[in-house]
Amino acid sequence: MTADAANTVLAQVEPAHDEIRAVFARQQAFAPRLRHASAAERLARLERLRKALLARREQIQRAAAADFRKPPEEVELSEIFPVLHEITHVRRHLRRWMKPKWVRPTLAMLGTRAEIRYEPKGVCLIISSWNYPFNLSFGPLVSAIAAGNTVILKPSELTPHCSRLIREIVEETFPPEEVAVFEGGVEVASALLSLPFNHIFFTGSPAVGKVVMEAAARHLASVTLELGGKSPAIVDASANLDKTVRNLVWSKFANNGQTCIAPDHVYVHASVRAEFLDKLKARIRRVYGADAAAQRSSPDYCRIVNARHFERLRGLLEDALQRGARLVTGGRAGGRGVLHRPHRAGRRQRPAQAAGAVRLCRGQGGGGAGARQYLSGRQLRQSQPGAFSSRQPAVRRRQPQRPGQCARRFRLQGLLARAGRAGRPLQQHASAVPALYRQGEGADQTGVAVPGVGPRGRSRSITTTMRRRPVLYDYVIVGGGSAGCVLANRLSADPAIRVCLLEAGKADTSPVLHIPAGTALTLPGRYHNWAFQTEPQLGLNGRRGYQPRGKVLGGSSAINAMIYIRGHPSDYDHWAALGNEGWSYREVLPYFLKAENNERGAGPYHGVGGPLNVADLRSPQPVTLAFLEAAAQAGFPRTDDFNGPQMEGVGLYQVTQVNGERCSVAKAYLNPVRGRGNLTVLTRANATRILFQGRRAVGVEYRQGGKTHIVSVRREVLLSAGALQSLLLSGVGPRRELERHGIPIVHELPGVGENLQDHIDYVACYRSKSKELFGFSPSGAVQLLRAWREYRRQRTGLLTTNYAEAGGFLRTDPALELPDVQLHFVIGIVDDHSRKLHFGHGYSCHVCVLRPRSRGRVALHGPDPLAPPLIDPNYFGEEEDLETLLRGYKLMRQIMEAPASAARIMSATAVA
User: Fold this and answer.
1) pLDDT tens for residues 390-405?
2) Which of 206, 212, 210 lies closest to 154 in space, CA to CA?
3) What whole-number distance in Å separates Cα of residue 265 and Cα of residue 343?
4) Distance between CA atoms of 232 and 159, rounded to whole angstroms?
5) pTM confidence score
6) H or E segment to which residue 859 belongs
7) Residue of 260, 361, 500, 663 with catalytic role
8) Is 226 a catalytic residue?
9) 548 FRET partner, CA 20 to 30 A, in 197, 438, 517, 690?
């Protein structure tokens, strides 16, 4: 489920079965790594979860209030504190549990020795219920992670706000291959239960529990069950009737029928039925007192249930009616007939049945200490009452002495209602359960059900059906890259403005994105990368060019080399001279200063206090310093600040890092404001087209989880999806291109997709004897292990590198006024963006044409919105670009042949 700031349900996201199977396969492959994880590593994961829960305490309270109307103090006690206590308990005892223990020999074990170990079970499935979503989700999760398992978690579909927040907390705390969250209903649960999980933790009704048990038996998986759903009470001939009656009445009144200990039906042995009924009626009269009418008019309706419960019920219904709900059916409210509709004879309706709600209840044992024993292979004594021990049967039944000796069943609620004076209903004593939201068949209906007691004591549910209003935002931002994150931050700063950010990629939670050296893994792969390919290029003898682009919150700033370069001031002045008012360097410089937090301090060209942290490299490698020395030997000037008064020259790059970690635009601008109530961020939401009314944009269509959704906009749609995703699919662009693919024309705009300018780049690689460089060799593996240990302790060393540690801006012709090529010195062999690997060590140097003359285009391969774009940069379409690149290559060779560089080179390889 997803929901906006106004607590309105937007959609139910049902992931495709293929996606579920793929995630399960990934979890299976990752499970062996967690099996051998140390106690410190497991505890570090749980510590991140603890901090996330504390940091999001207010959000958890708001989510529980939206789904349950629970007060904050109740959320603290029932949702947050139990999980924090479980983490503390695990932190104290995990190391002791992980140590193997030798069993003391007994008479039956003479001559033998036995060892008891904790062994992780592998992949665990957690299906939690609606009534304690955080406790029953994170409680078992803590036990599973502590035992070394991978986990797939499915929160209840009946708590959309809590489920969404659970998913966000998991995504920011655990890597996706360790813990994954799937939201959805019965179809998602069925798809999950078809997979061979090693262990299933389930909390819910006996009916659904049967399906879980069937799946467990089919795959021979162990199960931890906590079944609720108002199981019946069985009273046999040997029962203590006084205690039985006292417990039944207490559970029904004290818990208002909301917990698993309040039975829905009572089966009584025929021999004690009459005596049981007499005792039960007498007990109820004691609860009501002599004057039931006086009790109802008092502030407390009875000794246990008070007016607060009824006010919660009334407030919930009034809120639903104010939002456009239509009352379908209901009983009397306080005898005044406010919510009255005649009860149809013969029609018996179970609570919450009309809304299609599944009653999932919490039993004793929770997801805490009692669940630990099921998430590892070791059998322990039962550590908490109510949790089924592996040495005990899961369900105990009392069978009657002979078939047919049980009296007919009757509803306890009906008996309670009939026991009151004048047969008045007990709506006053029914507490308001949370609104149970469910997506309707037509995608525009939402059911709200509240269990209660109807006229004449029949069990009824007060059910409303409301039409789901379309969510309307002031701004919809398409693309969560560098520009999109800044827009989301600035626009949502006004609490009166509602902003929605759509990002086709994932959240930036992977450690690979935050460790600077992880760039080498993100650029060649497709997990956080669009990995586009150009069309065959005539200027490259038919070769295709690789176009990496970030597919994650933060966009390409989450996968690039982190070099902080603004561009030459003359470029901005040239744009202003073309008629773009406000784009001169003098006018844009204050915005650069406002955005920047430069660790060198404030100055005419740098600012402090901004969200984007800019720092010097923490551990530049010796070979990089040798490159700078070689450039000086070749006669090129040195510059200490490429963004200062003098850009031309060779020097070390500044990088967008903070404390040795990548500072992407998402980390700088978006993550600090994710908790704003007026900002909605939807990941894995692939925008397919912009919706128009005439020539005005009114919304965005996007695909998420295999389904198509629409988000509406009041003011503007802001397109920040990158240079390679265009408006063509929305019907805006050249007529010929749109008609060729059968796309209806909204606005003919010939310039869309035209005039693509891309920097052509040449790479020369050099093998070296130096071992401080990245490379593939036994010594390189040892060095990488040492670098990892240093990074974990101090956030310094080789893993803080951005690879392109140094470079320069040079003029290939002395007659030129501005540099026309840029150099990037890389401490590794880079062949085809590291997609081709080489054994050994070395370094590379890039030569890049800064202002190419060639012009290309971006077009469509077809009308499929998920197909990659047609990219044609037209490299070397203008011969002048080739001449500039050749001159730049000669300058680069002068540096590489200087004594400081030549002494380290074993051989040279031209990669291009």
Assistant:
1) 222 222 333 333 333 3
2) 212
3) 21
4) 26
5) 0.53
6) strand 856-859
7) 260
8) yes
9) 690
